[in-house]
Specification:
Elements lengths: L1 H21 L3 E5 L5 E6 H46 L9 H4 L6
Antiparallel strand pairs: 1-2
């Protein structure tokens, strides 16, 4: 399986390299307010666009990933409490504070 993954990576790299070598013509990039950058290689424009799109995609999936992680932690704590209740072990909330940290005399 590892060799298959590396073969696919190599094929994608070669395809992107061939694409990059064929798209080296300079282009003019126009922004808002008629701000123009002249003679930028087309592959640079395409790679920057790809990277910006990938970053936006990651930023869009970040909240859902954090939400799933919080939910998994909550469910893990709930499972530990349920297992402790089934096994008869006292939970942290059921133990008196004096047992955990005896009070010192004043």
């Amino acid at each position: 399986m590892r060799y298959l993954v590396w073969t696919l990576r190599l094929l994608v790299f070669v395809a992107v390299l061939m694409f990059a070598l064929k798209n080296t013509e300079p282009v003019a990039v126009t922004f808002y307010n008629n701000y123009v950058i002249q003679s930028v290689p087309l592959i640079v424009v395409m790679l920057v666009t790809f990277v910006v799109g990938a970053l936006f995609g990651l930023l869009l999936t970040l909240p859902a990933g954090l939400r799933r992680r919080r939910e998994a932690m909550r469910l893990r704590r709930e499972l530990e409490r349920a297992q402790a209740a089934v096994n008869g072990a006292p939970t942290a909330a059921a133990v008196a504070p004096e047992v955990v940290a005896p009070m010192s005399p004043l």
